């Protein structure tokens, strides 16, 4: 397989990072070159100093998209579990990839707000509801659900392994189609 960006978008607690880690391992087991571009880690380096305004979130998402595109067009799989709450920023990333000729696969990790709050090990949803965290995506800041993702991944009642396997199956299917055309 050749590289691509696999962008997992969804609410905090949806399972993006957990699925991404499993997907990275599956790709590495196939001998692929893979980088995990974790949104929380990149906020501490690439986007240090940015806040959570719409402008700052868009800047963060497009910076990560720039890095992912660079990796993808050089044959590396960039697996990106980043919330990316705004449709226009996600579309900027897709357009950047299309312009460079790199593959871009958008996976909407579709988990309900209630389930995300239930899974929340950091306590972010409780803090947001208590007014301690302003502009929490999905609580008092919007999450614009992707209208036409390459895959809408329903995670509730499914194992992480099954979810990652569904993403990998899509990637293998896409790769097969690209090879035949």
Explain this structure to me?
It comes from Dermacoccus barathri. Its EC number is 2.7.1.25. Belongs to the APS kinase family. One of its GO terms (molecular function) is kinase activity. The protein has a five-stranded parallel sheet with strand order 2-3-1-4-5, sandwiched between helices. The two termini are 15 Å apart. The protein has helices at residues 16-29, 39-43, 54-72, 87-100, 113-119, 124-129, 160-180, and strands at residues 4-9, 34-36, 77-81, 104-110, 151-154. The protein contains seven helices and five strands. Helix 1 packs across helix 7 (160-180) and helix 3 runs parallel beside helix 4 (87-100).
Task: Please outline the helices and strands.
Layout: E1 4-9, H1 16-29, E2 34-36, H2 39-43, H3 54-72, E3 77-81, H4 87-100, E4 104-110, H5 113-119, H6 124-129, E5 151-154, H7 160-180
Helix pairs in contact: 1-7, 3-4
Keywords:
globular, 181 residues
Range of strand content: 5-15%
Oligomer: single chain
Largest sheet: 5 strands, parallel
Strand order of the largest sheet: 2-3-1-4-5
Function: Catalyzes the synthesis of activated sulfate.
EC number: 2.7.1.25
GO molecular function, one term: kinase activity
Domain APS kinase: 3-153
């Amino acid at each position: 397989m050749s590289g691509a960006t696999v962008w997992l978008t969804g609410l905090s607690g949806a399972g993006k990072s957990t699925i991404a880690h499993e997907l990275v391992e599956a790709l590495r087991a196939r001998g692929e070159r893979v980088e995990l571009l974790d949104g929380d880690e990149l906020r501490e380096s690439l986007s240090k100093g940015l806040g959570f305004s719409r402008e700052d979130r868009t800047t963060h998402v497009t910076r990560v998209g720039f890095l992912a595109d660079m990796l993808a067009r050089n044959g590396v799989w960039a697996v990106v579990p980043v919330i990316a709450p705004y449709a226009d920023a996600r579309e900027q990333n897709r357009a950047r990839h299309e312009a460079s000729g790199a593959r871009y696969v958008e996976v909407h990790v579709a988990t309900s707000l209630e389930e995300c709050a239930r899974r929340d090990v950091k306590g972010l949803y409780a803090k947001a509801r208590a007014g301690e965290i302003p502009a929490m995506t999905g609580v008092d800041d919007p999450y614009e659900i992707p209208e036409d993702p390459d895959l809408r991944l329903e995670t509730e009642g499914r194992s992480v392994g099954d979810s990652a396997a569904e993403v990998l199956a899509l990637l293998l299917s896409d790769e097969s189609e690209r090879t035949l055309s």
